[in-house]
Amino acid sequence: MGYIMNLRNMVGSRPLIMVGACVIIANTKNELLLQLRKDNNCWGLPGGSMEIGETLEQVAQRELFEETGLIANSLTLLNVYSGQDFYYKYPHGDEVYNVVAAYVCRDYKGLLKKEENEVKDLKFFDTAVLPSNISPPDLPIINEYIQKCL
Q1: Residue 7 host element (H or E)
Q2: If I label 19, which of 8, 55, 99, 126 is the partner at 20 to 30 A Cα–Cα?
Q3: What are phi and psi for residue 90, nearest 5 degrees?
């Protein structure tokens, strides 16, 4: 059981500050890798919450591998996000205020393999035709990536 789940056992669904990281994987065609999440049926970035003792970069690397099977050879920090725009209420009722370090990765290895408990599908998308159902906490990150990096 992870750190956030241990906290949830103590505080229930009340809002928590949740620190984590996500990774924007861009292939050679500048397409973005998104995962169809099982919890909210939205497309989003690979990522998750920090465990005790991890660095943000370690969170990004671990979550990327766990959710996609890919290994980041290098990560570049895009930005750190927080505030009201990163409040999220999960479908099951848990509330969080996310603090997210977003990394860009263009140098990776491995074969795509979805994590069966959390991920319905993995797919690369052209940034001009992204799906309409993007997970709310990921949308501002993806938009900033498109504005600053393409």
Answers
A1: helix 3-11
A2: 126
A3: -70, 155
Instruction: Take residue 30 and report the two structure tokens written for it.
Output: 């500048």
Task: Return the percentage of the chain with pLDDT > 90, whole number.
Answer: 99
Alpha helices in 20-149 (DSSP H): 56-68, 139-149
- 51-75 b/e with 16+ CB inside 10 Å = b? eeebebeebbbbbbbebbebebeeb
Burial of 101 (C-beta count, 10 Å sphere; 0-12/13-18/19+): buried
Structural domain containing residue 24: 3-149
Largest CA distance in the chain: 46
pLDDT computed for residue 150 by the predictor: 83
- The pLDDT assigned to 50 comes to 98
Q: Please state, in angstroms and rounded to a whole number, the distance separating the CA atoms of residues 123 and 71.
A: 16
pLDDT bracket for residue 112 (50, 70, 90): very high
Alpha-carbon gap, residue 125 to 6, rounded angstroms: 35
Q: What CATH number should be reported for the domain holding residue 35?
A: 3.90.79.10
Q: pTM of the prediction?
A: 0.95
